[in-house]
Amino acid sequence: MAATRRTRVLSVLAATSLALVTAAPAAAQPAGSTEPSSPPSAAEEQGLATPPPLPPDFPTPADSGEPDRAYTPKTQCVASKGSTAPLEHKPWGQDLLRFEDVSDFATGKGQKVAVIDTGVSPHNYFQNRLEGGGDYVIKADNGLKDCDGHGTEVAGIIAANPQDETIGFRGIAPDAGIVSIRQSSANYEFKDPDTNTSVSAGNLGTLAQAIVRAANTPGVTVINMSVDSCRPASFGPIADPERQVQAALRYAVEERNVVPVASAGNLPEGDCKQQNSPDPKNPTWLVIPPWFSDYVLSVAAMTEDGSVAEFSITGPWVSVAAPGTDIISLDPANPAGLANQTVDEKGNAQPIQGTSFAAPYVAGLAALVRQRFPELNAKQVMDRIKATSSHPAAAGGHDNLVGYGMINPIAALTAFIPAEENIEPDAAVDVPFEMPPPYERNWTPMQVAMIGSGGGVGILLLTLFVVHTVKRNRRDEEEQPRSRM
Predict the structure, then answer these.
(1) Residue 355, CA atoms < 13 Å, CB-side half-sphere
(2) pLDDT in tens, 46-61
(3) Can you point out the beta strands (E) in 395-444?
(4) What are the positions of the active site (predicted)?
(5) Which one has a higher pLDDT value, 439 or 9?
């Protein structure tokens, strides 16, 4: 099994991609404009914790199914390290989330998870459960070539199944199908001959199209997006490319009944170089797609000791958290191997980590919930996952760091949720707080007892004194010499 891989592990959508849109409606605001296209909502006046709602007539983005420009290879594709070593430990996330027990309730059978990423390369551990769903980088590859290595690792966390008991690693939903849609790649670029500049493959326009494509793919019930665009909140409330992503997510949830899952974002990413503001009403950075929390589960990364990973971007839109460090997954360059390290551009080996790898745990869990509770719609599945997570000690059980907390797959698959049975939540009851009257203790019995006890002790001491005196007098008389006659 390959112990390392060579790749540029973070494939992100740069904030400058806000201008790279292919299907903008005529009435919408211009790309990159900082002026809102509708009056500010109350949320906008307070800050940017939530985006303004979509206008009712805002159209779902049209899916061209084509790359938005002619991309060519920029760097060589990912390759396995020459030497290999056995991986002696399972991923810590498997034990924490109790994968072995989870399989007693659901395995993801009958569910398909669309992975919008850098593509997914065929691997033995997918068996015949991997299919191409489209490609916005090189159309002919149909999503089944992962030059970056990122998407294959993400898909492995969702649905890898070695079917070999001697191999400890497996995905959280080992019987789920994977539909790969390649939407981005840091290893491909477009060179503009007029400006002599280049851009990597992937932008918000193709992301919106990929979401629509995934939602329209037969059998897809969950979407995983481990790609993000992060930009300063000072750029303005919402731009048209972002609104298209919002519209695509709304379409997936409300019209196609699909659960979207996205990574919360990593530092540094795009234009985001520092951690977000702790003020939930006024974030410093906005991360897309997580910002649209009404229509997506966004996932923060946790470490093995239960802390939030330092690189995990916080924000009021974070939904839940999942393991995101010391990752083991599929080797994208070896169809029979695993990987636990990546090699950066300088040749330094590093552990695989990121919110990109926390999101597929949640996407896989969503597939399990959809199998076990087929009657639940997409919103209810999202609510169930949030309701059964390990809530932080914060108001409403939610904070900017981990959302509603670390996911709990066993609880998500077994808990009783009253709202799902149309049971109204308990109404708040105004119970007046009244202090009880002061307790007037009767000290008379205690006083009598103390006086009696004191008298008894006094009599006992007097008796002992008299007895002692009498004995001493008798002893003195016996010791006195008798006079002789």
Answers:
(1) 35
(2) 467 889 999 888 999 9
(3) none
(4) 117 (charge relay system), 150 (charge relay system), 356 (charge relay system)
(5) 439
Phi, psi of 114 (to 5 degrees): -80, 125
Strand partners, 327: 352
3-state secondary structure of 224: strand
| Distance, CA of 164 to CA of 179 (rounded, Å) | 24
475: confidence class by pLDDT, cuts 50, 70, 90: low
Going by C-alpha positions, the residue among 168, 171, 186 that lies closest to residue 109 is 171
What is the chain's mean pLDDT, rounded? 84
Helix (H, G, I), strand (E, B) or coil at 43: helix
Of 215, 214, 190, whose CA–CA distance to 200 is shortest? 190
List the structure tokens of 456. Answer: 């008894």
Q: Which residue has the higher pLDDT, 328 or 18?
A: 328
Which residues carry out catalysis? 117, 150, 356
| pLDDT tens-digit readout, 440-463 | 777 677 666 667 666 666 676 667
Contacts (Cβ under 8 Å, ≥6 apart) of 187:
8, 73, 74, 75, 76, 77, 147, 148
**Amino acid identity at 377:** N
Q: 280-307 burial string, b = 16+ CB within 10 Å, else e?
A: beebbbbbbbbbbbbbbbbbbbbbeeee
Best CA proximity match to 414, nearest among 379, 369, 371: 369
